[in-house]
Amino acid sequence: MKKRSEEVSNHARANGSGRHGRGPGTAAKPLHVLVVDDDRVDRLALMRALQQTAFDVTIDEAEGVIAAIDLLTAEPFDCVLLDYNLPDGDGLTFLRGLRGAGISATVIMITGQPDSTVAAELMEAGAADYIPKALFTPGLLSQTLQRLFGA
To answer: Among 10, 35, 121, 134, which residue has the least CB neighbours within 10 Å?
Structure first.
């Protein structure tokens, strides 16, 4: 699905929806983000939330592990918003693979997994943060990004 991800991202950039614009004189920190989630509605919600932050975001998206790997090996990303349950793998295995491959992008897990053991494993594997989908809000994502990347 790399082609689809690039088309969506290029479309978003061309139409201004992939960037969070700021007025003249205000410089928002640029942030290149990869959203990895198999649910299109969840991806769109995450992208909308990213656009509401204080960052000048460029967003790419992937529906699964293979598409995400293609994108992550093709270009650098500052941040990956990663769902735990994907059709072609799980977030924990994917995260361990990223770290093993030397990809150091900041990973924020966005998941419906309510298990605290899973959360602990994700953090031990190198996730910078963990946001349960049940608690997710644009404000919480913005606060997390501010904490991790500053403004």
So the answer is: 134
